[in-house]
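To close the chapter, one final illustration. This time we ask the reader to focus less on the individual chains and more on the assembly as a whole: which components sit near each other, and how the overall shape emerges from the parts.
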Amino acid sequence: MKNFITTYCHISGDTCSLNGKVLATLDTSSEDGWLKQLYRYSRQTYPKFYKMDMLSQIGYLASGFIKSNHVTELSEYADDEIALVFANRFSSAESDIRFQKSYQEQKAPSPAMFVYTLPNIVMGEIAIANKWYGENMFAVLPKFDADWYVNYSQILLQADAKAVLGGWINISEEKPEAFVFLVEAAESGVEFSTDNLHSLSGID
Amino acid sequence: MIYIGAEEIISPLGTNAEVNFSALKADVSGISLMPGAGFNHTDLHLAKIKDLDPAQSFEKLIVTIMNSLSERIDNSIIRSDRTLVILSSTKGGLYDDIQDPFRAVNEILISGFQLAHVPVVISNACISGVLAINTAGNMIKAGLYEHVIVIGCDVVTDFVVYGFQSLFAISNQPCMPFDQNRTGVTLGEACSAVLVSNTTSVFKQKPYSLLTGTSANDANHISGPSRTGEGLYRSVKRTLEKNAVQAEEIDFISAHGTGTLYNDEMESIAMDRLGLTAVPLNSFKGYFGHTLGAAGVLETAVCLQMMRHSTLIKSRGFTDPGTSVPLHIVTETKSAPLKTILKTASGFGGGNASLLIRE
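The assembled structure is written out below.
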Protein backbone atom coordinates (compact mmCIF):
# COMPACT_ATOMS: atom_id res chain seq x y z
CA MET A 1 0.00 0.00 0.00
CA LYS A 2 1.19 3.48 -0.82
CA ASN A 3 1.84 5.94 1.96
CA PHE A 4 1.46 9.69 1.74
CA ILE A 5 2.59 12.70 3.68
CA THR A 6 -0.81 14.17 4.48
CA THR A 7 0.11 17.11 6.72
CA TYR A 8 3.34 18.86 7.62
CA CYS A 9 4.41 21.72 9.80
CA HIS A 10 7.48 23.95 9.89
CA ILE A 11 8.57 26.08 12.82
CA SER A 12 11.56 28.39 12.40
CA GLY A 13 12.80 31.23 14.58
CA ASP A 14 10.08 33.58 13.38
CA THR A 15 7.54 31.66 11.28
CA CYS A 16 5.21 28.73 11.74
CA SER A 17 3.58 27.21 8.70
CA LEU A 18 1.31 24.30 7.95
CA ASN A 19 1.39 22.54 4.59
CA GLY A 20 3.49 25.42 3.31
CA LYS A 21 1.00 28.14 4.34
CA VAL A 22 2.06 30.62 7.01
CA LEU A 23 0.04 30.23 10.23
CA ALA A 24 1.82 32.70 12.47
CA THR A 25 4.84 34.96 12.51
CA LEU A 26 6.86 36.28 15.41
CA ASP A 27 5.39 39.37 17.05
CA THR A 28 8.50 41.26 18.09
CA SER A 29 6.43 43.71 20.15
CA SER A 30 5.00 40.94 22.34
CA GLU A 31 6.38 40.34 25.82
CA ASP A 32 5.91 36.62 25.27
CA GLY A 33 8.61 34.51 23.71
CA TRP A 34 8.01 32.97 20.30
CA LEU A 35 6.98 29.53 21.50
CA LYS A 36 4.57 31.00 24.05
CA GLN A 37 3.08 33.10 21.27
CA LEU A 38 2.54 29.93 19.27
CA TYR A 39 1.03 28.18 22.27
CA ARG A 40 -1.51 31.02 22.63
CA TYR A 41 -2.17 30.94 18.90
CA SER A 42 -2.86 27.19 19.10
CA ARG A 43 -5.66 27.80 21.65
CA GLN A 44 -4.72 24.62 23.43
CA THR A 45 -4.99 24.37 27.19
CA TYR A 46 -2.22 22.17 28.48
CA PRO A 47 -0.50 23.65 31.55
CA LYS A 48 2.31 21.05 31.27
CA PHE A 49 3.48 23.06 28.27
CA TYR A 50 5.09 25.62 30.58
CA LYS A 51 7.35 23.12 32.31
CA MET A 52 8.64 21.57 29.07
CA ASP A 53 12.01 22.37 27.55
CA MET A 54 12.15 23.97 24.09
CA LEU A 55 12.55 20.67 22.24
CA SER A 56 9.39 19.28 23.83
CA GLN A 57 7.47 22.55 23.38
CA ILE A 58 8.26 22.59 19.67
CA GLY A 59 7.31 18.93 19.25
CA TYR A 60 4.11 19.44 21.20
CA LEU A 61 3.13 22.55 19.19
CA ALA A 62 3.94 21.09 15.77
CA SER A 63 2.09 17.84 16.48
CA GLY A 64 -0.87 19.92 17.73
CA PHE A 65 -1.02 21.98 14.54
CA ILE A 66 -0.87 18.81 12.46
CA LYS A 67 -3.69 17.24 14.48
CA SER A 68 -5.88 20.32 14.28
CA ASN A 69 -5.64 20.45 10.52
CA HIS A 70 -6.06 16.76 9.87
CA VAL A 71 -8.95 15.90 7.58
CA THR A 72 -10.12 12.98 9.70
CA GLU A 73 -9.71 12.53 13.40
CA LEU A 74 -6.40 10.98 14.34
CA SER A 75 -8.34 9.34 17.14
CA GLU A 76 -9.74 6.95 14.54
CA TYR A 77 -6.43 5.16 14.83
CA ALA A 78 -6.05 2.73 17.71
CA ASP A 79 -3.96 4.16 20.56
CA ASP A 80 -0.86 2.23 19.47
CA GLU A 81 -1.10 2.65 15.72
CA ILE A 82 0.67 6.02 15.48
CA ALA A 83 4.44 5.64 15.69
CA LEU A 84 6.81 8.51 16.46
CA VAL A 85 10.06 8.76 14.45
CA PHE A 86 12.10 11.78 15.50
CA ALA A 87 15.68 12.87 14.97
CA ASN A 88 17.99 15.83 15.24
CA ARG A 89 21.61 16.89 15.12
CA PHE A 90 22.44 18.09 18.63
CA SER A 91 20.49 15.67 20.83
CA SER A 92 19.27 17.53 23.95
CA ALA A 93 22.23 19.95 23.97
CA GLU A 94 20.17 23.02 24.80
CA SER A 95 18.76 21.41 27.97
CA ASP A 96 22.08 19.74 28.75
CA ILE A 97 23.79 23.13 28.90
CA ARG A 98 21.06 24.52 31.16
CA PHE A 99 21.34 21.56 33.53
CA GLN A 100 25.13 21.83 33.57
CA LYS A 101 24.80 25.50 34.58
CA SER A 102 22.46 24.52 37.41
CA TYR A 103 25.23 22.60 39.15
CA GLN A 104 28.28 24.51 37.92
CA GLU A 105 26.97 28.06 38.46
CA GLN A 106 23.89 27.83 40.71
CA LYS A 107 25.48 24.98 42.69
CA ALA A 108 22.17 23.12 42.80
CA PRO A 109 21.55 20.43 40.18
CA SER A 110 17.97 20.93 38.99
CA PRO A 111 15.87 17.76 38.73
CA ALA A 112 13.27 19.64 36.66
CA MET A 113 15.98 20.40 34.08
CA PHE A 114 17.67 17.01 34.31
CA VAL A 115 14.58 15.08 33.17
CA TYR A 116 14.76 16.95 29.85
CA THR A 117 18.38 16.03 29.17
CA LEU A 118 17.36 13.15 26.89
CA PRO A 119 16.27 13.83 23.30
CA ASN A 120 13.49 11.22 23.35
CA ILE A 121 11.58 13.08 26.08
CA VAL A 122 9.80 15.10 23.38
CA MET A 123 8.21 11.86 22.15
CA GLY A 124 7.24 11.01 25.72
CA GLU A 125 5.48 14.37 26.01
CA ILE A 126 3.63 13.85 22.71
CA ALA A 127 2.69 10.30 23.75
CA ILE A 128 1.37 11.53 27.11
CA ALA A 129 -0.56 14.45 25.63
CA ASN A 130 -2.28 12.15 23.11
CA LYS A 131 -2.32 8.85 25.03
CA TRP A 132 -0.38 7.20 22.23
CA TYR A 133 1.19 3.85 23.13
CA GLY A 134 2.93 3.15 19.81
CA GLU A 135 6.56 2.71 18.78
CA ASN A 136 9.07 5.51 19.46
CA MET A 137 12.45 6.13 17.84
CA PHE A 138 14.85 9.00 18.36
CA ALA A 139 18.01 9.12 16.25
CA VAL A 140 20.83 11.65 16.33
CA LEU A 141 22.05 12.23 12.76
CA PRO A 142 24.67 14.65 11.41
CA LYS A 143 22.08 16.17 9.09
CA PHE A 144 18.47 15.73 8.00
CA ASP A 145 18.41 12.35 6.29
CA ALA A 146 15.22 11.69 4.33
CA ASP A 147 16.39 8.11 3.63
CA TRP A 148 16.49 7.33 7.33
CA TYR A 149 12.90 8.49 7.88
CA VAL A 150 11.57 6.69 4.81
CA ASN A 151 13.42 3.44 5.52
CA TYR A 152 12.59 3.23 9.19
CA SER A 153 8.99 4.42 8.77
CA GLN A 154 8.35 1.82 6.05
CA ILE A 155 9.51 -0.88 8.46
CA LEU A 156 7.01 0.34 11.07
CA LEU A 157 4.20 0.80 8.54
CA GLN A 158 4.72 -2.72 7.26
CA ALA A 159 4.47 -3.99 10.84
CA ASP A 160 1.82 -2.66 13.21
CA ALA A 161 1.82 1.10 12.69
CA LYS A 162 -0.89 2.71 10.54
CA ALA A 163 0.59 6.19 10.70
CA VAL A 164 3.97 7.74 11.48
CA LEU A 165 4.49 11.17 12.96
CA GLY A 166 8.01 12.10 11.90
CA GLY A 167 10.04 15.02 13.05
CA TRP A 168 13.35 16.80 12.68
CA ILE A 169 13.65 19.20 15.59
CA ASN A 170 16.73 21.14 16.41
CA ILE A 171 17.49 24.10 18.54
CA SER A 172 20.45 26.09 17.40
CA GLU A 173 21.49 29.28 19.20
CA GLU A 174 18.15 29.16 21.04
CA LYS A 175 16.23 29.23 17.76
CA PRO A 176 13.99 26.36 16.69
CA GLU A 177 14.27 24.52 13.41
CA ALA A 178 11.45 22.04 13.14
CA PHE A 179 9.87 20.01 10.38
CA VAL A 180 7.16 17.62 11.56
CA PHE A 181 5.08 15.49 9.21
CA LEU A 182 2.39 12.84 9.23
CA VAL A 183 2.63 9.78 7.02
CA GLU A 184 -0.31 7.44 6.46
CA ALA A 185 -2.04 5.28 3.90
CA ALA A 186 -4.34 7.89 2.42
CA GLU A 187 -6.21 8.84 -0.74
CA SER A 188 -4.18 11.94 -1.32
CA GLY A 189 -1.19 13.92 -0.16
CA VAL A 190 2.42 13.90 -1.21
CA GLU A 191 3.77 10.44 -1.94
CA PHE A 192 6.12 9.38 0.86
CA SER A 193 9.45 9.14 -0.91
CA THR A 194 12.96 10.30 -0.08
CA ASP A 195 12.88 13.01 -2.74
CA ASN A 196 9.49 14.35 -1.74
CA LEU A 197 10.32 14.33 1.95
CA HIS A 198 13.59 16.10 1.30
CA SER A 199 11.96 18.75 -0.83
CA LEU A 200 9.08 19.36 1.64
CA SER A 201 11.55 19.63 4.51
CA GLY A 202 13.07 22.77 3.04
CA ILE A 203 16.35 21.67 4.63
CA ASP A 204 19.49 21.74 2.46
CA MET B 1 16.69 -15.75 9.64
CA ILE B 2 18.54 -12.98 11.50
CA TYR B 3 21.60 -13.87 13.55
CA ILE B 4 23.23 -12.22 16.53
CA GLY B 5 26.62 -12.94 18.04
CA ALA B 6 30.26 -11.85 18.23
CA GLU B 7 29.32 -10.23 21.54
CA GLU B 8 31.98 -8.12 23.17
CA ILE B 9 32.01 -6.34 26.54
CA ILE B 10 34.24 -3.72 28.16
CA SER B 11 33.12 -3.00 31.72
CA PRO B 12 34.58 -2.60 35.22
CA LEU B 13 34.69 -6.44 35.25
CA GLY B 14 37.05 -6.75 32.31
CA THR B 15 37.90 -5.95 28.73
CA ASN B 16 36.33 -8.85 26.88
CA ALA B 17 33.16 -10.91 26.98
CA GLU B 18 34.76 -14.06 28.38
CA VAL B 19 36.50 -12.29 31.27
CA ASN B 20 33.27 -10.47 32.09
CA PHE B 21 31.33 -13.72 32.10
CA SER B 22 33.86 -15.45 34.38
CA ALA B 23 33.51 -12.57 36.82
CA LEU B 24 29.72 -12.91 36.81
CA LYS B 25 30.01 -16.66 37.43
CA ALA B 26 32.35 -15.93 40.34
CA ASP B 27 29.81 -13.42 41.75
CA VAL B 28 32.14 -10.45 41.37
CA SER B 29 30.57 -7.02 41.11
CA GLY B 30 32.00 -4.01 39.28
CA ILE B 31 30.41 -1.67 41.81
CA SER B 32 32.57 0.00 44.45
CA LEU B 33 32.40 2.97 46.80
CA MET B 34 33.93 6.03 45.15
CA PRO B 35 34.93 8.60 47.76
CA GLY B 36 33.86 12.13 46.86
CA ALA B 37 32.29 11.14 43.53
CA GLY B 38 28.90 12.66 44.31
CA PHE B 39 27.66 16.25 44.32
CA ASN B 40 29.34 18.24 47.11
CA HIS B 41 31.93 15.45 47.29
CA THR B 42 29.65 12.89 48.86
CA ASP B 43 30.75 9.26 48.66
CA LEU B 44 28.85 7.21 46.13
CA HIS B 45 28.73 3.66 44.82
CA LEU B 46 29.51 3.54 41.10
CA ALA B 47 30.56 0.89 38.58
CA LYS B 48 33.53 2.72 37.03
CA ILE B 49 36.09 1.27 34.63
CA LYS B 50 39.46 1.38 36.36
CA ASP B 51 41.98 3.95 35.09
CA LEU B 52 39.65 5.26 32.40
CA ASP B 53 40.67 8.85 31.67
CA PRO B 54 37.39 10.76 31.15
CA ALA B 55 38.74 12.83 28.23
CA GLN B 56 37.55 11.19 24.98
CA SER B 57 36.68 8.05 26.98
CA PHE B 58 33.46 7.54 25.00
CA GLU B 59 35.25 7.62 21.66
CA LYS B 60 38.19 5.52 22.91
CA LEU B 61 35.92 2.77 24.26
CA ILE B 62 34.08 2.58 20.96
CA VAL B 63 37.29 2.40 18.92
CA THR B 64 38.63 -0.30 21.26
CA ILE B 65 35.49 -2.39 20.97
CA MET B 66 35.39 -2.01 17.17
CA ASN B 67 38.92 -3.42 17.10
CA SER B 68 38.09 -6.37 19.33
CA LEU B 69 34.82 -7.04 17.54
CA SER B 70 36.72 -7.20 14.26
CA GLU B 71 38.65 -10.18 15.65
CA ARG B 72 35.38 -12.03 16.21
CA ILE B 73 33.97 -11.61 12.70
CA ASP B 74 34.96 -11.67 9.05
CA ASN B 75 36.33 -8.15 9.31
CA SER B 76 36.11 -7.45 5.59
CA ILE B 77 32.41 -6.66 6.17
CA ILE B 78 33.20 -3.59 8.29
CA ARG B 79 33.88 -1.33 5.32
CA SER B 80 31.24 -2.94 3.09
CA ASP B 81 28.39 -0.79 1.85
CA ARG B 82 26.07 -3.58 3.02
CA THR B 83 27.09 -2.87 6.63
CA LEU B 84 25.75 -0.21 9.00
CA VAL B 85 27.02 0.79 12.44
CA ILE B 86 24.38 1.74 15.02
CA LEU B 87 25.47 3.43 18.24
CA SER B 88 23.24 3.26 21.29
CA SER B 89 23.94 5.99 23.82
CA THR B 90 22.22 8.57 25.97
CA LYS B 91 24.98 11.14 26.48
CA GLY B 92 27.74 10.20 24.02
CA GLY B 93 30.85 12.35 24.23
CA LEU B 94 29.17 15.03 26.38
CA TYR B 95 32.23 15.30 28.62
CA ASP B 96 34.25 16.78 25.76
CA ASP B 97 31.57 18.40 23.62
CA ILE B 98 28.25 19.18 25.25
CA GLN B 99 27.11 21.11 22.16
CA ASP B 100 27.55 18.27 19.70
CA PRO B 101 28.14 15.04 21.65
CA PHE B 102 28.24 12.57 18.73
CA ARG B 103 30.27 14.52 16.17
CA ALA B 104 33.66 13.24 17.32
CA VAL B 105 32.73 9.56 17.45
CA ASN B 106 31.17 9.63 14.00
CA GLU B 107 34.28 11.23 12.50
CA ILE B 108 36.61 8.79 14.24
CA LEU B 109 34.59 5.75 13.17
CA ILE B 110 34.20 6.82 9.56
CA SER B 111 37.87 7.68 9.07
CA GLY B 112 39.36 4.99 11.31
CA PHE B 113 37.32 2.07 9.99
CA GLN B 114 36.51 3.34 6.49
CA LEU B 115 32.80 2.88 7.03
CA ALA B 116 30.64 3.15 3.93
CA HIS B 117 27.77 4.76 5.87
CA VAL B 118 27.57 7.40 8.58
CA PRO B 119 26.73 5.63 11.86
CA VAL B 120 23.18 6.03 13.18
CA VAL B 121 22.98 7.08 16.83
CA ILE B 122 19.91 5.81 18.65
CA SER B 123 19.22 7.82 21.78
CA ASN B 124 16.07 6.67 23.53
CA ALA B 125 17.16 6.76 27.14
CA CYS B 126 17.49 3.33 28.78
CA ILE B 127 15.73 1.39 26.03
CA SER B 128 18.27 2.56 23.41
CA GLY B 129 20.21 -0.71 23.33
CA VAL B 130 17.25 -3.05 22.88
CA LEU B 131 15.74 -0.66 20.34
CA ALA B 132 19.07 -0.51 18.48
CA ILE B 133 19.31 -4.31 18.21
CA ASN B 134 15.69 -4.54 17.04
CA THR B 135 16.34 -1.81 14.49
CA ALA B 136 19.40 -3.67 13.25
CA GLY B 137 17.37 -6.85 12.73
CA ASN B 138 14.50 -5.01 11.08
CA MET B 139 16.77 -3.14 8.67
CA ILE B 140 18.37 -6.40 7.59
CA LYS B 141 14.96 -8.06 7.17
CA ALA B 142 13.89 -5.11 5.00
CA GLY B 143 16.93 -5.74 2.78
CA LEU B 144 18.54 -2.37 3.54
CA TYR B 145 21.75 -3.93 4.89
CA GLU B 146 23.20 -7.40 5.39
CA HIS B 147 25.15 -6.69 8.56
CA VAL B 148 24.67 -4.20 11.37
CA ILE B 149 27.23 -3.65 14.11
CA VAL B 150 25.44 -2.44 17.24
CA ILE B 151 27.54 -0.70 19.89
CA GLY B 152 26.12 0.49 23.21
CA CYS B 153 28.21 2.90 25.26
CA ASP B 154 27.77 5.40 28.07
CA VAL B 155 30.35 6.69 30.52
CA VAL B 156 29.86 7.97 34.06
CA THR B 157 30.11 11.77 34.22
CA ASP B 158 29.37 14.35 36.92
CA PHE B 159 26.49 15.41 34.69
CA VAL B 160 24.67 12.10 34.97
CA VAL B 161 25.67 11.43 38.58
CA TYR B 162 24.44 14.82 39.80
CA GLY B 163 21.28 14.46 37.76
CA PHE B 164 20.33 11.13 39.30
CA GLN B 165 21.27 12.49 42.72
CA SER B 166 18.97 15.47 42.16
CA LEU B 167 16.14 13.00 41.52
CA PHE B 168 17.01 11.14 44.75
CA ALA B 169 17.25 8.05 42.59
CA ILE B 170 20.68 6.78 43.69
CA SER B 171 20.99 3.88 46.11
CA ASN B 172 23.10 4.43 49.22
CA GLN B 173 24.38 0.86 48.82
CA PRO B 174 25.18 -1.16 45.69
CA CYS B 175 21.79 -1.43 43.98
CA MET B 176 19.47 -4.28 44.99
CA PRO B 177 17.09 -4.93 42.10
CA PHE B 178 13.73 -6.46 43.08
CA ASP B 179 14.75 -6.67 46.76
CA GLN B 180 12.45 -5.29 49.43
CA ASN B 181 15.21 -3.02 50.75
CA ARG B 182 16.09 -1.48 47.39
CA THR B 183 16.50 2.28 47.42
CA GLY B 184 17.58 3.20 43.89
CA VAL B 185 20.07 2.79 41.08
CA THR B 186 23.83 2.50 41.02
CA LEU B 187 25.24 4.16 37.92
CA GLY B 188 27.78 2.35 35.79
CA GLU B 189 29.78 2.68 32.59
CA ALA B 190 30.36 0.11 29.89
CA CYS B 191 30.76 -0.44 26.19
CA SER B 192 29.34 -3.50 24.52
CA ALA B 193 28.90 -4.65 20.94
CA VAL B 194 27.14 -7.33 18.93
CA LEU B 195 26.95 -8.15 15.26
CA VAL B 196 23.52 -8.67 13.73
CA SER B 197 23.62 -10.31 10.31
CA ASN B 198 21.73 -12.47 7.84
CA THR B 199 24.80 -14.67 7.28
CA THR B 200 26.19 -17.22 9.78
CA SER B 201 29.58 -17.47 8.08
CA VAL B 202 30.65 -13.95 9.08
CA PHE B 203 30.72 -14.99 12.75
CA LYS B 204 33.81 -16.84 14.01
CA GLN B 205 31.83 -18.37 16.90
CA LYS B 206 28.35 -19.77 16.55
CA PRO B 207 25.69 -17.02 16.41
CA TYR B 208 22.18 -17.24 17.85
CA SER B 209 18.86 -16.28 16.31
CA LEU B 210 17.51 -12.80 16.91
CA LEU B 211 13.73 -12.63 17.03
CA THR B 212 13.18 -8.90 16.80
CA GLY B 213 10.65 -7.33 19.11
CA THR B 214 8.70 -4.13 19.47
CA SER B 215 8.62 -0.98 21.58
CA ALA B 216 5.69 0.75 23.27
CA ASN B 217 5.32 4.00 25.15
CA ASP B 218 3.61 4.14 28.56
CA ALA B 219 1.96 7.48 27.67
CA ASN B 220 2.02 8.13 31.38
CA HIS B 221 4.98 10.14 32.74
CA ILE B 222 8.33 11.35 31.37
CA SER B 223 10.42 10.25 34.35
CA GLY B 224 8.30 7.72 36.23
CA PRO B 225 7.19 4.25 35.20
CA SER B 226 3.55 3.39 34.62
CA ARG B 227 1.87 1.91 37.70
CA THR B 228 0.21 -0.72 35.55
CA GLY B 229 3.25 -1.63 33.46
CA GLU B 230 1.17 -0.82 30.38
CA GLY B 231 3.98 -0.08 27.92
CA LEU B 232 6.13 -3.02 28.99
CA TYR B 233 3.09 -5.29 28.88
CA ARG B 234 2.22 -4.14 25.37
CA SER B 235 5.79 -4.39 24.11
CA VAL B 236 6.39 -7.94 25.38
CA LYS B 237 2.93 -9.17 24.40
CA ARG B 238 3.44 -8.04 20.84
CA THR B 239 7.03 -9.33 20.70
CA LEU B 240 5.82 -12.80 21.72
CA GLU B 241 2.84 -12.75 19.33
CA LYS B 242 4.87 -11.49 16.39
CA ASN B 243 7.34 -14.33 16.84
CA ALA B 244 4.72 -16.95 17.78
CA VAL B 245 6.55 -17.67 21.02
CA GLN B 246 4.52 -18.92 24.01
CA ALA B 247 5.24 -17.87 27.58
CA GLU B 248 6.14 -21.49 28.46
CA GLU B 249 8.93 -21.52 25.88
CA ILE B 250 10.88 -18.76 27.61
CA ASP B 251 13.74 -20.14 29.70
CA PHE B 252 14.97 -16.87 31.16
CA ILE B 253 14.12 -13.17 31.32
CA SER B 254 16.86 -10.56 31.47
CA ALA B 255 14.78 -7.81 33.05
CA HIS B 256 15.58 -4.12 33.29
CA GLY B 257 15.59 -4.16 37.14
CA THR B 258 17.15 -0.80 37.99
CA GLY B 259 16.65 -1.14 41.73
CA THR B 260 14.28 1.81 42.11
CA LEU B 261 11.10 1.21 44.06
CA TYR B 262 8.77 2.07 41.21
CA ASN B 263 10.59 0.55 38.25
CA ASP B 264 10.96 -2.91 39.75
CA GLU B 265 7.38 -2.86 41.03
CA MET B 266 6.16 -1.86 37.57
CA GLU B 267 8.08 -4.73 35.97
CA SER B 268 6.57 -7.25 38.38
CA ILE B 269 3.06 -6.05 37.50
CA ALA B 270 3.77 -6.28 33.77
CA MET B 271 5.26 -9.77 34.15
CA ASP B 272 2.18 -10.84 36.10
CA ARG B 273 -0.13 -9.51 33.38
CA LEU B 274 1.97 -11.41 30.83
CA GLY B 275 1.83 -14.70 32.75
CA LEU B 276 5.62 -14.71 33.08
CA THR B 277 6.08 -14.68 36.85
CA ALA B 278 7.23 -18.33 36.93
CA VAL B 279 10.05 -17.78 34.44
CA PRO B 280 13.55 -17.41 35.96
CA LEU B 281 14.40 -13.70 35.85
CA ASN B 282 17.29 -11.50 36.88
CA SER B 283 18.74 -8.03 36.64
CA PHE B 284 22.43 -7.60 35.80
CA LYS B 285 22.50 -4.13 37.37
CA GLY B 286 23.96 -5.55 40.61
CA TYR B 287 27.15 -6.38 38.65
CA PHE B 288 27.43 -3.53 36.14
CA GLY B 289 25.24 -0.82 37.66
CA HIS B 290 22.87 0.98 35.33
CA THR B 291 24.84 1.72 32.19
CA LEU B 292 21.95 3.65 30.55
CA GLY B 293 22.37 3.62 26.76
CA ALA B 294 24.80 0.72 26.94
CA ALA B 295 22.56 -1.45 29.13
CA GLY B 296 20.42 -3.09 26.45
CA VAL B 297 23.41 -4.14 24.35
CA LEU B 298 25.51 -5.15 27.37
CA GLU B 299 22.76 -7.26 28.92
CA THR B 300 21.92 -8.92 25.59
CA ALA B 301 25.63 -9.70 25.17
CA VAL B 302 25.66 -11.33 28.62
CA CYS B 303 22.56 -13.33 27.67
CA LEU B 304 24.47 -14.68 24.65
CA GLN B 305 27.32 -15.68 26.95
CA MET B 306 24.82 -17.38 29.28
CA MET B 307 23.50 -19.41 26.35
CA ARG B 308 27.02 -20.37 25.25
CA HIS B 309 27.82 -21.56 28.78
CA SER B 310 24.33 -22.96 29.60
CA THR B 311 24.52 -21.04 32.84
CA LEU B 312 21.94 -18.99 34.71
CA ILE B 313 23.47 -16.01 36.50
CA LYS B 314 21.94 -15.02 39.81
CA SER B 315 20.40 -11.60 40.37
CA ARG B 316 23.05 -9.93 42.52
CA GLY B 317 21.78 -7.79 45.37
CA PHE B 318 18.51 -9.69 45.72
CA THR B 319 17.69 -11.40 49.02
CA ASP B 320 14.08 -10.75 50.02
CA PRO B 321 11.17 -10.44 47.59
CA GLY B 322 10.17 -6.81 47.35
CA THR B 323 7.52 -6.48 44.67
CA SER B 324 3.76 -6.78 45.14
CA VAL B 325 3.73 -9.66 42.66
CA PRO B 326 6.39 -12.27 43.46
CA LEU B 327 8.77 -13.06 40.60
CA HIS B 328 11.00 -16.07 40.04
CA ILE B 329 14.26 -14.24 40.75
CA VAL B 330 17.40 -16.32 40.12
CA THR B 331 19.15 -16.57 43.50
CA GLU B 332 21.87 -19.05 42.62
CA THR B 333 24.22 -19.21 39.66
CA LYS B 334 23.82 -22.67 38.13
CA SER B 335 23.87 -24.75 34.97
CA ALA B 336 20.67 -24.74 32.98
CA PRO B 337 19.82 -25.30 29.34
CA LEU B 338 18.88 -21.98 27.79
CA LYS B 339 17.12 -22.06 24.45
CA THR B 340 14.95 -18.94 24.48
CA ILE B 341 15.68 -15.69 26.31
CA LEU B 342 13.52 -12.58 26.64
CA LYS B 343 15.32 -9.26 27.12
CA THR B 344 13.36 -6.21 28.25
CA ALA B 345 14.11 -2.55 28.93
CA SER B 346 12.16 0.44 30.18
CA GLY B 347 13.20 4.03 30.56
CA PHE B 348 12.68 7.78 30.84
CA GLY B 349 10.34 9.21 28.27
CA GLY B 350 7.99 6.27 28.90
CA GLY B 351 9.78 3.88 26.55
CA ASN B 352 9.65 0.08 26.80
CA ALA B 353 11.27 -2.42 24.44
CA SER B 354 11.83 -6.16 24.22
CA LEU B 355 13.50 -8.78 22.07
CA LEU B 356 14.05 -12.54 21.99
CA ILE B 357 17.15 -14.57 21.32
CA ARG B 358 17.07 -18.22 20.52
CA GLU B 359 19.43 -21.18 20.27
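Chain B touches chain A through 53 residues (CB under 8 Å). Chain B has two domains: 3-173+187-202, 209-358. With these observations in hand, you are ready for the problems at the end of the chapter.
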